[in-house]
Amino acid sequence: HGSNAVASSANKNDGNETPTKETPGSKLATEARSLTDKYGLAYMAAKNLIGPVTMVIFYVALKAGVDVQSLLETALGASASGGAAAGAGAAA
Fold it and tell me: Quick one: which of 82, 75, 35 has its CA closest to 58?
């Protein structure tokens, strides 16, 4: 009977170690599964493409010499200009 108690306690430890060893990667995977179940795969694919595509668009625009800051200020209003520091630069 003593060896069964040791074996069952070892099994309990194995079950307890998995949740406590939650790594950032497994936490992200769990969150991704939850969001996929809730919103569907198409949403998740779009969500994960928007960031990199936006970065590429800004990179290409900057390399082409486009004044991205003025475009953002026009599109988003003066609040995109950076607050007091930009106001001081505009006053100069």
Answer: 75
